[in-house]
Design goal:
- The chain contains 23 helices and 8 strands.
- The protein is α+β, with helices and mostly antiparallel strands.
- Strand 7 and strand 8 form a beta hairpin.
- Helix 9 packs antiparallel against helix 10.
C-alpha cells in the first residue's frame, strides 16, 4: 500500500570548500605541488605571485585592492577577453627562491627498459615473421617481475584474433623457450619454481648446482617450507651437501625483471612535509615549503570586473559581457576557495605536528625509541580540538625530518600496554625489543613465539604468546621455521 508522509530530518553535509580542504589535507607536499599546478592550468584567475616576499605575509590579492593598485597597468576591456581565442597569458612558472640560492641538477642515468631489451634480443634471432610475432606477443605479456602470467592456449587465441597468425601451443612453447634463453636469466618463467630452475641451468653443472636443481624439481614445497629433514631423506644427501645446494638457490633472483626497475627505484626520494630541528636544546618545527609557490588572484581578471562595473553605470553592457562576467566571478570564487584551503591546510598541518612533537618531546630530543609514549589519533585530536578523521588525514603519507632520520608520521602512533609495574608503555618499545632479539638469535635455531614471550616477560612485559606473534607479524617477520638457515 502506497502512502505519502511528511518527515523532518536533520542532515549534515560538507560544503565544497570543506571537501576541497579534506582532499588537500591527505596529500603530501610533492603531490600538493602538482595539485597547485593543475589548479593554475584549469583556473586562469589563479596565478603565482612572483614578487612574493618570503619575509612578509603573502596572500591572494583582493579584487578591490588590485583595482586600486598604483602600478601602471594597461586598460583591459572585457570585449578583448571575449574576442581572444588564445590561451590567457598568465604565468605558470616561478623561481620561488632568492638569487643567492645555488641549484644543482641531479644527473639521472638511463638505460633501455625491460621489454625493450627483450625485443632487441628477439630481433637478433632472425626468426621467421610468424615466430617473430609470437615472440613479441610473449614479451608483451610479461609482467614487471619478468613472469609470463598468460596461458599458452589463451595466447594462441590472441594471435589468431588480433594478429591473424594461426599457430599451436607447441609452436608457442618453442618460441617461449627461445625467449627464456634471453637475459636476464629466468625471464619468461611461468612460476617461481621454473624461474629458479632456468637460472640454475645457466650455471656450471657442479654437484651443488645439480643437487639444487633436483631440490627445486622434486622437493620445491618442502624447500619453501624449510623442511630440510624431508629434503635430505628424499635426495639422500648429507647436511653439508644440502647447505651448499641451498646457498646456490639463495643466490638466485626471484624477480629477474625487477633488475631493470632498480634504477628507477633508487631515483625516488622522500620529501619531508615537516622539519624538526634542535636549537639550544629546544625543538623547532617548520613546514617544508621549498618550491611551494605563493598564489594570488590575477589582476587582469579583477580589472575586467572593474571595467564591467564602469560600463554597467554607463549602461553599455550586453548579454555576452554579462555571461563573461558570471564566468569570471565563478573562477574568482573558485580561486579564493583554493587559496583559503591551502592556508587552512598549512595551519592544520602545523598545529597537528606541533601537538605530536610536544607529546613525544622526549623522543625527538633524544632519539631513543624506548622513549616513545603510547599515542593514538584520539589523543592528538583532543589536544588540537579537531576530528579524528582530520588527524588521520594529516598523518597519512606525511613524512617528518628529524635529527635521527626521516620517518613516516603515522609510525609515531602506537597503542599502549601495561608493564609489570603497571606503567603504560608503547607497543613500539616492545617491537624494538623483538627486533633486537631476532637480530641476535641463532639462525640455526631461531627463537619461537613461546621463547620470545618468555624473554619479554623477563624484561617486564607480561604479554600472551598470541600478542607476541601479532607484533612479529606486524614487523613482517616470518615464523621461526621459515627463519631457519642451514
Amino acid at each position: 500500500m502506497l502512502n505519502q508522509s511528511l518527515q523532518q530530518k536533520l542532515l549534515q553535509k560538507l560544503s565544497p570548500q570543506q571537501i576541497l580542504l579534506m582532499k588537500l589535507l591527505q596529500i603530501p607536499s610533492m603531490a600538493l605541488e602538482q595539485r597547485i599546478k593543475q589548479e593554475i592550468e584549469e583556473n586562469p584567475v589563479l596565478e603565482i605571485d612572483e614578487n612574493y616576499d618570503q619575509d612578509k605575509d603573502g596572500g591572494a590579492d583582493d579584487p578591490e585592492e588590485t583595482a586600486k593598485d598604483d602600478d601602471p597597468q594597461n586598460d583591459v576591456d572585457i570585449r578583448d577577453y571575449l574576442d581572444d581565442d588564445e590561451v590567457p597569458s598568465y604565468k605558470l612558472n616561478a623561481g620561488n627562491s632568492s638569487s643567492e640560492n645555488e641549484f644543482k641538477e641531479i644527473p639521472f642515468a638511463s638505460e633501455a627498459g625491460f621489454h625493450a631489451s627483450l625485443l632487441s634480443q628477439l630481433e637478433l634471432k632472425n626468426l621467421p615473421p610468424a615466430k617473430l610475432i609470437i615472440g613479441t606477443t610473449i614479451i608483451g605479456n610479461l609482467d614487471e617481475a619478468g613472469y609470463l602470467q598468460r596461458e599458452l592456449g589463451a595466447m594462441v587465441d590472441d594471435l589468431a584474433f588480433t594478429q591473424g597468425v594461426t599457430t599451436t601451443i607447441d609452436e608457442v612453447a618453442s618460441v617461449l623457450r627461445i625467449v627464456q634463453s634471453f637475459e636476464p636469466a629466468g625471464v619468461a618463467a611461468r612460476s617461481l619454481q621454473e624461474c629458479l630452475i632456468l637460472q640454475l641451468k645457466r650455471y656450471d653443472p657442479s654437484p651443488s648446482v645439480q643437487l639444487a636443481i633436483i631440490i627445486l624439481e622434486k622437493c620445491f614445497e618442502d624447500f619453501i617450507k624449510k623442511h630440510y629433514d624431508k629434503i635430505q631423506n628424499r635426495t639422500h644427501s648429507n647436511e653439508d651437501d644440502l647447505r651448499s645446494a641451498i646457498n646456490e638457490i639463495l643466490k638466485l633472483n626471484p624477480k629477474p625483471g625487477n633488475a631493470y626497475g632498480e634504477l628507477l627505484e633508487t631515483n625516488q626520494y622522500v620529501i619531508p612535509d615537516f622539519i624538526i630541528e634542535i636549537k639550544d636544546g629546544k625543538l623547532e618545527l617548520s613546514l617544508n615549503q621549498r618550491n611551494m609557490p605563493e598564489l594570488r588572484l590575477s589582476r587582469t581578471y579583477t580589472e575586467m570586473l572593474e571595467t564591467y562595473s564602469e560600463n554597467k553605470h554607463r549602461k553599455e553592457q550586453n548579454n555576452a559581457q554579462r555571461d563573461a562576467v558570471i564566468f569570471i566571478k565563478q573562477k574568482i570564487d573558485s580561486a579564493r576557495w583554493f587559496i583559503e584551503a591551502i592556508r587552512q591546510r598549512q595551519n592544520t598541518l602545523l598545529v597537528t605536528m606541533t601537538a605530536i612533537m610536544e607529546y613525544q618531546q622526549n623522543y625527538f630530543l633524544e632519539g631513543d625509541e624506548t622513549l616513545l609514549k603510547p599515542m593514538i589519533l584520539k589523543d592528538i585530536a583532543e589536544i588540537v580540538g579537531l576530528d579524528i578523521s582530520t588527524i588521520s588525514r594529516v598523518a597519512n603519507s606525511k613524512y617528518v625530518q628529524t635529527p635521527y632520520g626521516t620517518f613516516l608520521l603515522k609510525s609515531f602512533f602506537s597503542e599502549s600496554i601495561q608493564n609489570d609495574q603497571g606503567e603504560e608503555v608503547s607497543t613500539r618499545e616492545i617491537k624494538k625489543i623483538l627486533i633486537d632479539c631476532l637480530a641476535a638469535e641463532d639462525k640455526n635455531k631461531p627463537l619461537t613465539d613461546e621463547e620470545l614471550t618468555f624473554i619479554l616477560k623477563q624484561k617486564g612485559y607480561p604479554i600472551a604468546r598470541r600478542t607476541a606473534a601479532k607484533y612479529r607479524e606486524q614487523l613482517n617477520i616470518p615464523v621461526a621455521r621459515l627463519r631457519k638457515v642451514m
